[in-house]
Design brief:
The protein is an alpha+beta fold. The protein has two domains: 106 residues, no CATH class; 98 residues, SH3 type barrels (Roll).
């Protein structure tokens, strides 16, 4: 009975692994199409199309507009218009500066450039995977983003002493994200395990 249960469980999980990414993409598309619904209605007012196709057309048009605006603000005239628009209007909007800084960090990939292992508590040997958000030379500390798993889009900013943070730049982008998304699975990989050993040596030496 146990073997039969194991057989069915394994088969269901295998099917789930294959289907789940498609379900996730479908959910993402549902969020996007819901967000751009007013723009989709604008497209439908001019063209008769099935709603899903109209949503896709609206999405492509919106992306094209964002691309053109992005290219425009890189020109001399565009920078002038953008700087004055910010000065006289946008900066008066509550939380604009905060959202602008967050988008700038994502655009420049500054948050997720440097992967590290950090010792949050000096009385514990526990190391947490994180991303270095900023380095603070005056205080001798490092601001890290301790991301959650398996959803790396959320996390907690923490400020820890520089000597308790070990940067790992040797890993590929895929290996770094796999540690987070797979809930830590894969750290037995010889390359990753070697870096963990070095992190412990670095932190103990700096203590």
């Amino acid at each position: 009975m146990q073997k039969i249960l194991h057989y069915f469980t394994k088969s269901i999980l295998s099917g789930l692994v294959i289907v789940l990414p498609f379900g996730f993409l479908w959910w993402i598309w549902g969020v996007i199409s819901g967000t751009i619904e007013p723009f989709t209605g604008f497209v439908l007012s001019y063209i008769t199309l099935p709603e899903e196709i109209a949503s896709f057309v609206a999405f492509v048009i919106l992306l094209s507009l964002l691309f053109l605006i992005g290219k425009f603000v890189q020109t001399t005239i565009g920078r002038f218009v953008h700087e004055n628009l910010e000065k006289w209007l946008l900066r008066r909007i509550p939380f604009y500066e905060t959202f602008r800084e967050i988008l700038s960090l994502w655009r420049d990939k500054r948050i997720f450039q440097s992967f590290a292992l950090a010792q949050l508590n000096e009385n514990s040997d526990e190391l947490v995977p994180c991303f270095v958000a900023d380095e603070n030379p005056i205080s001798g500390t490092v601001t890290i983003l301790h991301v959650t798993s398996p959803n790396p889009t959320t996390g907690f900013p923490r400020i820890v002493p520089k000597e308790r943070v070990y940067k790992i730049d040797e890993l590929s982008t895929k290996e770094k994200w796999n540690i987070i998304i797979s809930c830590g699975s894969g750290t037995s990989n010889p390359i990753i395990d070697k870096q963990i050993k070095r992190a412990y040596q670095h932190i103990k030496k700096s203590a």
